Amino acid sequence: MKIEVRRAEYKDVQGLRELYRHEANCQIVTDSALMRAIADPYLIFVNDRIGGYGALWNTYPKGRLMEFHTLPDVRGMAATLFRELLIVSQATHIEAQTNMPLMLMMLYDHAREITTESILFQDAFTTRLVCPGGVFRRATYDDAAAMSPPQEDIGDWVLEFDGAVVANGGYLRHYNPPYGDIFMAVSESRRGRGFGSYLVQELKQVCYEAGSKPSARCNPGNLASRRTLQKAGLLPCGRLLAGEVAPLA
To answer: Is the pTM of this model over 0.85?
Structure first.
């Protein structure tokens, strides 16, 4: 069995990535890395035919293997292909989402000191939260300065309460379609009053209206953000894990 791994260009793996996205059936939080050229693609050949591909970060976190996919006819030898990818790419670390089984298995089999970097969320149910006196609206140029403390940049949407901007947020669409990644921030003096959850609820709606499926992520230690997301109907669906490549036997 002849196995060869070659450095490639994005156009060489673009079609394979569509199969990768389809199989994932979830938000891929690093989806734009190859398109933005901040990760390097590798083609994997088995007996001189394409069997799959991989990708390695070339910026922070440089040297971390972040994508791996095989075609169905060579999936049974995925571990062997992955080992060759590790050797050729000289990867030092591996990352994987727990809701993407193939890469997760490669992480467990080939990495050590595995840690959780993010908790991933998907929309699970519709909420009917209310915010008496609150106004959810498009952000204006002056709204960033109205936040407490003032911010240089805010999302496309804000929540106004008693004439003051108390929260802002939006959604990012540079992920695999149809997913949109929701983000938000609440003024320090207004936290703990439900503004964040109400804002996320409304952001979910405008995200759907734009043709995207709401999703989100947060730091595993940020319990306040996790509670805010869950109260608005976004529930954990996976984690982003990372570990150091273990010595190859």
So the answer is: yes
Domains parsed from the chain with CATH numbers:
3-118+240-245 (3.40.630.80), 126-232 (3.40.630.30)
Q: For 149-188, how does the pLDDT look when each residue is reduced to its tens digit (9 = 90+)?
A: 767 778 899 999 998 899 999 999 988 999 999 999 998 8
Residue environment code for 94-108, b if the CB has 16+ CB neighbours within 10 A, otherwise e: bbbbbbbebbbebbe
Residue 210, SS3 per DSSP: coil
Which pairs with CB-CB distance under 8 Å and at least 24 residues apart come from 158-165?
A: 159/131, 159/134, 159/135, 159/195, 159/198, 159/199, 159/202, 160/134, 160/135, 160/136, 161/131, 161/133, 161/134, 161/135, 161/190, 161/195, 162/133
Residue 148's pLDDT band (cuts 50, 70, 90): low
Task: List, for residues 91-103, the tens digit of each pLDDT value.
Answer: 999 999 999 999 9
Q: How far apart are CA 231 and CA 215, in angstroms?
A: 14
CA atoms in the 13 A half-sphere facing the CB of 228 = 27
Contact (Cβ atoms closer than 8 angstroms) between residue 98 and residue 68: no
Q: Structure tokens of 234?
A: 């976004």
DSSP state of 28: -
Please report, in angstroms and rounded to a whole number, the separation of the first and last CA atoms in the chain: 20
CB 84 within 8 A of CB 208: no
**CA nearest 49: which of 22, 84, 74?**
74
Residue 25, sorted as left (phi over 0), alpha (psi -120 to 50) or beta, turns out to be: left
E strand or H helix at 138: strand 134-138
